[in-house]
Fold this protein.
Amino acid sequence: MADSGRQLTGWDAATWRTASGDPHLRSTVVALVLLDSPPDWPRLHARVERLTRMVPVLRQRAIRGVFGVASPRLAGDPDFDLDLHLRRMRLAGDGSWAELMGEARRVSLTDFDHDRALWEIVLVEGLQGGRAALLLKLHHAIADGQATVLIGLNLVELTAEADPAEAEAPEAPSVSDIGAPQVSVADIVDNVRRGFGAAERVGEAMIALARGTLTDPVRTWGSLLGTVASVGRFAAVPDGPLSPVMIERGTTYHFAAFDLPFAALRDSARERGRSVNDAFMAAVGLGLERYHVRRGTVVDDLRFNVPISLRGDPGDTSAQAANAVTIARFTLPVAGLTVDERMDSAHQAVEQWRNEPALRFADPLAEISWLVPMPLLAQAAFASDVTTSNVPGPPLPLFVAGARIAGMYPLVATIGAAVNVTMVTYDGTAFVGISGDDRAVPDLDALVADMRSGFATVIGEPVGPADPLSEPGPEDGTPKARAIRAAGRSGQ
């Protein structure tokens, strides 16, 4: 019998539906990997070929059933062609950071070919200083931020020289050519199985409720009502954004990025007994407050979207290329707070959400979203002012086909929010990527300046420039900048 693949469920399915149903909610994840030199092309080609064999979803396409009402299934593409997903190009202009950001934007805003695997990699050459970049683009339905990092770890190397132990790639997975009829049958089988599973869980819950009603009714019904209230908070649709200036939403956005010393951010959090994520969110809130003041207004609170990881065993590679998050949506005060108060409020909000009983029902609630009209889902997305995400990355220097990775910049679609701010840590540096909806943030340069100022205040020292390809000034204390200066002094 032909392998019918796996059906997208939970957050994967919900992400697919929203991205396909409304151009405002198109969801792509772009990792901009800055390299100190152009990689060896044949070697890169071989590394990516190996990557697709290590991560099967990169050889799978989305297939719909006969009726086209269920979420698609991911199954092996019998016509998979690596050269349709991996390409190289040279910038036509001066190889500036602005030109590279423009290319990253075009890659992100261009939709996928839904008849093929949902990813692509572009090698961009001709950057200033003889550098190059990789643009790794993934559909959010097959990977969240952490999964993107995990996928990337199968591409990178620990040294500039090739490792003979990795010369032999695993065998390509066998693939069967299936069509809509087979998909429909597999969907029915899966739906029946899930239905029986759901009925069994409901039966177990009713028995537990009856038993608890007899033995400890106050605690049992208190817990039930608390869970119902939590689900209500989880599913509530706000009226609109809280920002008085970042109101409109469009279908396009622009990117920007900068970096900062990770140790300074970590130490700032530790001094206050808080986490790196608390310091990160405090810096974002401070930057947004300053941006609103720049635009002539004071905003007391803003609505944040924060992915909460549901990932279990980190050694479980079967779920690496998938979404394992739910989205916490809450308001945070941003006006007139000290850095300590900002970290405290972020910490309390995230911890409160982690303790919400509804968190256990994240995937079932995402499934139910298929019954919610798209305009209502879009309204919920548009009500968010900012999405923040903090993704830990590798702490040591890495290489790709002989080229050293100088930076990893996360560039994520706004997906309905006015702004997305995502941070990835790598080799002692925190790399911050910003996307701003073109209608909500018509002056992205101003927002970036205020974000850099907010991070500088939180860490107590300067951050990297808004143009990471520019020569670092003496005030730039990031590890990347120090490495560039050291290379210059040594004549490299």
User: Anything to note?
Assistant: The radius of gyration is 23 Å. The longest strand covers residues 403-412.
